[in-house]
Write a structure and sequence with these properties.
With 305 residues, the protein is of the alpha/beta class. It is 27% helix and 20% strand. It binds fe (ii) ion (2 copies).
Length: 305
């Protein structure tokens, strides 16, 4: 004969529910203790109390992080170290005429475009010319460049160490101004549709990093090797006013290269009469996957070689 149904009162039902919940909770805890973390599980971070992405006791300080500007190009021209107003007019004209004929879609003005002789710390002849002359000559040449290449060529202007001098001047000498006046604003680059790239990590185009050169310290005889030793990735730069190339292959067979691009300034400046500078520029053609063909051009006797 079956047992008669047991009737429970409300208090008894509550006790049973609690017991079931407790037993489920105990099982889950036991499972968690026996489950080992997966070795390839992603590291989960929680926001720290002061806005970082990793939890911990540190608070944020001054933010010095820098990232490159990332652009795309199929046919890229790079010119650097014009040092206007002491640019070599013939070399400049030879370089941009070659690049225009090559059909570039993007031009990088890769630093030291303006000499800023007026702001040097190395001592200068104040009777020569002043800052206004340098700025107005630079503006004139930038207008000429934009007119020469037309609206369809994108132009970027990477800050070089000589453009740095402008920042130093504005911060230290012209502090009485109400507002910091950037070089980009002073040269009215926006009107010319020229994008100024602040001092930092340069421009990444496909698999090639473009920097002015002062960002990676160290000079010496073979700067192309020196820069690659530090960058460990495809890199090109000016700053040293010489044309060089260095390539390396790692143990996996991956090859990387470094290219120093010649300058477009006069080679007998007051501060370095026997300079040994090499005149040059670069034309780089990219595949869709970012791989590239680098043409490190020299200008000899006004002819591109
Ligand atoms: Fe330079
Ligand atoms: Fe430089």
């Amino acid at each position: 004969m079956p047992n008669p149904p047991v009737r429970l009162n409300a208090e008894e039902m509550r006790l049973i529910r609690e017991h079931r919940l407790q037993s489920v909770s105990d099982k889950l805890k036991a499972k968690a203790q026996t489950t080992k973390p997966k070795p390839d599980a992603p590291v989960v971070t929680t926001a720290g109390p002061f806005g970082g992405s990793v939890s911990g006791p540190f608070q944020a300080g001054y933010d010095e992080r820098a990232e490159p500007v990332v652009i795309r190009s199929q046919s890229l021209g790079i010119i650097n170290d014009l040092h206007v107003p002491v640019h070599d007019v013939n070399a400049c004209n030879a370089a941009v005429t070659y690049l225009k004929k090559a059909g570039i879609d993007t031009l990088i003005l890769n630093g030291d475009v303006v000499d800023m002789y007026s702001l040097t710390r190395h001592g200068r002849d104040a009777r020569k010319y002043g800052l206004q002359y340098e700025l107005s000559t630079a503006r004139r040449e930038l207008e000429n460049l934009r007119r020469f290449f037309g609206d369809r060529v994108k132009i970027y202007y990477v800050e070089g160490n000589h453009e740095n001098w402008w920042k130093r001047y504005m911060r230290n000498v012209a502090r009485e101004l109400d507002e910091y006046q950037s070089l980009a604003d002073t040269l009215k680059l926006r009107d010319l549709d020229i994008t100024y790239v602040d001092d930092g990590m340069g421009i990444q185009v496909g698999k090639l990093r473009v920097i002015h050169g002062h960002e990676i310290s160290g000079s010496g005889v073979y700067v192309a090797k020196r820069k690659l030793d530090k960058a460990k990735t495809n890199i090109t730069f000016g700053h040293h006013h010489t044309s060089q190339e260095w390539t390396q292959t790692d143990i996996h067979g991956k090859q990387v290269g470094s290219w120093a691009i010649g300058c477009l300034c006069q080679r007998t400046p007051e501060w370095n009469r026997f300079s040994g500078y090499t005149l040059g520029f670069a034309h780089v053609m990219f595949n869709n996957d970012g791989a590239f063909e680098f043409h490190n051009k020299r200008i000899i006797d006004g002819v591109v070689r």
